[in-house]
Design a protein that fits this description.
The longest helix is centred in the N-terminal third of the chain and has 13 residues. A 4-stranded mixed β-sheet has the order 4-5-1-8, with no helix packed on it. Strands 3-2-6-7 form a 4-stranded antiparallel β-sheet, with no helix packed on it. A hairpin with an 8-residue loop joins β4 and β5. Helix content is 9%, strand content 38%. By secondary structure, it is mainly beta. The chain has one domain.
Length: 151
């Protein structure tokens, strides 16, 4: 009985320290301003070398996840598809469950994508919708740098 009480006490004290957030993925199709797919290097288990992606929740702006500091399963710019059943497509992939603070519907996630070679950036935001399913924006491509130079 004494061991049970100690175990329960330990669980009550330490469980809140191991916060677990609900997983949820956001994917966004990326295109260049001429409608073509960005050419990115495809390294296994790494985000595209050509871009830096940063994301944060408006409710906790101090916690920034980035392709420079976080693994590919947290945040990435990458190609998906097989070229046959699903065409090769460049996407942003962010796992909301990897933020320390639990996301809630209505939260605003901010993202900034930087093209390393030109320094050009694209910023956008997403209001997290209700539910826990995939947030899929493959039919609404986002135009990203590098941008075509105007003559």
């Amino acid at each position: 009985m004494k061991k049970l009480i100690i175990s329960l006490f330990a669980a009550i004290v330490f469980l809140p320290l191991v916060a677990i957030t609900i997983p949820r993925v956001y994917v966004q199709k990326l295109v260049l301003d001429d409608g073509t797919k960005p050419q990115i290097s495809a390294e296994e288990k790494a985000s595209a070398n050509e871009y830096i992606l940063r994301a944060w929740m408006e409710a906790n702006p101090e916690e920034i996840i980035s392709t420079e500091t976080h693994p590919i399963h947290t945040i990435a710019v990458k190609d998906v598809g097989d070229g046959i059943k699903f065409p090769f497509t460049t996407i942003v992939n962010i796992q909301l469950g990897n933020f320390r603070r639990q996301w809630v519907a209505g939260d605003i996630m901010h993202m900034v994508l930087t093209h390393k070679a030109t320094g050009e950036t694209k910023g956008w935001q997403l209001v997290i919708p209700e539910g826990t399913n995939l947030i899929k924006k493959l039919d609404e491509p986002l135009v990203i740098p590098p941008y075509t130079k105007k003559k």
